[in-house]
Design goal:
alpha/beta, Sacchrp_dh-like_C (chains A, B), 19 strands, Dihydrodipicolinate Reductase, domain 2, homodimer, 8-stranded mixed sheet, about 35% helix, about 400 residues, Rossmann fold, Saccharopine dehydrogenase-like NADP-dependent oxidoreductase (chains A, B), 15 helices, Sacchrp_dh_NADP-bd (chains A, B), NAD(P)-bd_dom_sf (chains A, B)
Chain lengths: ~400, ~400
Amino acid sequence: MKKNVLIIGAGGVAQVVAHKCAQNNDILGDIHIASRTKAKVEKIIASVHEKKAMKQPGIFEGHALDALDIEATKDLIRKTNSQIVINVGTAFLNMSVLRACMDTGVAYIDTAIHEEPGKICETPPWYGNYEWKRAAECEEKGITAILGAGFDPGVVNAYARLAKDEYLDKVTDVDIVDINAGSHGKYFATNFDPEINFREFTGVVYSWQNNQWNVNKMFEIGKDYDLPVVGTRRAYLCGHDEVHSLAKNMDGADVRFWMGFGDHYINVFTVLKSLGLLSEQPVKTAEGLEVVPLKVVKAVLPDPASLAPGYEGKTCIGDYVKGLKDGKERTVFIYNVADHKEAYEEVGSQGISYTAGVPPVAAAILVATGEWDAKKMVNVEELPPKPFINVLNRIGLQTCIRDENGDRELSF
Amino acid sequence: MKKNVLIIGAGGVAQVVAHKCAQNNDILGDIHIASRTKAKVEKIIASVHEKKAMKQPGIFEGHALDALDIEATKDLIRKTNSQIVINVGTAFLNMSVLRACMDTGVAYIDTAIHEEPGKICETPPWYGNYEWKRAAECEEKGITAILGAGFDPGVVNAYARLAKDEYLDKVTDVDIVDINAGSHGKYFATNFDPEINFREFTGVVYSWQNNQWNVNKMFEIGKDYDLPVVGTRRAYLCGHDEVHSLAKNMDGADVRFWMGFGDHYINVFTVLKSLGLLSEQPVKTAEGLEVVPLKVVKAVLPDPASLAPGYEGKTCIGDYVKGLKDGKERTVFIYNVADHKEAYEEVGSQGISYTAGVPPVAAAILVATGEWDAKKMVNVEELPPKPFINVLNRIGLQTCIRDENGDRELSF
């Protein structure tokens, strides 16, 4: 049984991960958290103690770490005797942290695909460009590496697998829908790191349809979804990590990702993108200073963590999975609804951070209990979904289903 | 008789000034042009020769100069034996170039108010913060310094004075209206240096009404103007240099400045301003780089000079001057209409640069002939307007009037 967790990162998601690890430290053992800025981890630890999140007395320590430095990361893993690393730092760190885990023989969990600073929207499948190149070595060494174990990617991958296992004989379409019906009250803000958020949408949109990669432009295809709790919302076909593994693992079903956007977001995004201000490529000012415009946009936008106190409303994220059951067409919608204010009251973060931060802790719990200790590199849909959904139900994210029999909670 | 001109700057306006000086080098003598970047002045000189702009054989030389370096500027004035300096460099240079002129005893002409990089929209009257503090010294030394001798400020100041002298017994209202009805075909661009352009509109709006400074927000007050040639256009009350001198020199009349903006400009401006991207104050990126957002916006926007080849349509800039004549209320509209394409064909710049660049050359000609060699610091409305209008008519900007007798050209 693996125990002792090292959390990497100190943003809004890391805050949730920290609280949830503390709340489950009877299973997870010692908790360590590391980030470039020590003050940020100290703040998170203070919040954990303030909320009395530790289930039982135990270790919760903070460390300064540049996680691009593989040797330093390995030293910290060894020094803390960590056996599970939850990487919720910036997406630029994945391959460095994964290498440190592979070299020290510990389990690796992340929530988003690896990215290189100077590149966006690389050739699909995205996992093939970085993570999957380490799959054979992970299997050979018996390293558990769970990729994309946030909500989306993550829980939505488990929902697709669940629909395939339980509700359909054959899956033809997986449409993942992510709606944030909450309001932060600011003129404009992104719900997680603006740099990563905008990088998701400045390239082309890849979807998997008719067994091939399909290319669209951002905001080219919109669709109204009538959803539980949040009502009818307009969502747009977007590129997203999970499409790139489900394309391989859903037996040829079409896989599309839809995200809800209001007209105001689209207007601001369109202005910034059209002007070139979302570019990840440096420009030179008249004074000769080289600067990446996107990093300046990030600098002027509100820190996503700062949105939490005033955030109100709910999120609804789930999978419309369509296919055949007993020879007839059937669609199920498996989903979760989260509440921004409840999330803030419990762990001091808003709902988007909450939905992203709870699942990797559920995954860590399942690695600790052995149920998900795969001893190889996997995407979430390659693991049994029911224990995951059960842990999520228990630790803060309730799974529901809507089908011909109505809406109801799911557990196993 | 003063002669020999040193042009400072190498942007779109400097290009026009260079061509117009060349076209009038029988009056103006040797022409020199200096800018930080030597390559830019060489390009302008090449354009002057390509268009065969030199009226008679003569000197037209380029120089590299950091015009913030007062001693270097003095050296260049002396070395070139210049007697008139036309400063059309960035607005941050004014006080340095003025000082160099005062120390060398030559005439100074500029087209926009002095600005300090870290400040916007200072206390009115703006001229009182910098330029007018040198007025006594100019008068004592007999230095001719003509402030704001572009179109607006500049020609519009002369129009206000002309209306007061010729068409009204008492002026009650001066409404300056600046409409660019042209199209550059880009998603978004500013017609002159984006940094200076945006700085005009990110502060509050000062107007002079009821003998006091009145404060509004940008885009708070809009009004449709039905204008010659360009038709009905929506203009907004804005802050602008000329309000700050006319407030003093129009015997207590209200002075307002209106600029035309399309909805698209307003939307882009509003997004950028609301996000903080038009700020002149530095921010720090996550990587610790200090950068002024406005300078990054400038870096991603098209170079205003690059707009010229495809620019089409016309500008209309003028003064609605209202008051009493023979005991009855009367309004005259004195204006110019310029054409982007004609400007480009003649001097290689678009119409906005053309309207800004022709007037300081007209002023230089009048300094050279002695008619405007004031031997003190003046704003344009303090000089006789008729010779100015006559020279402008001759060198490319025709003045017209619209009143109860219809539209017609004006000359004296």
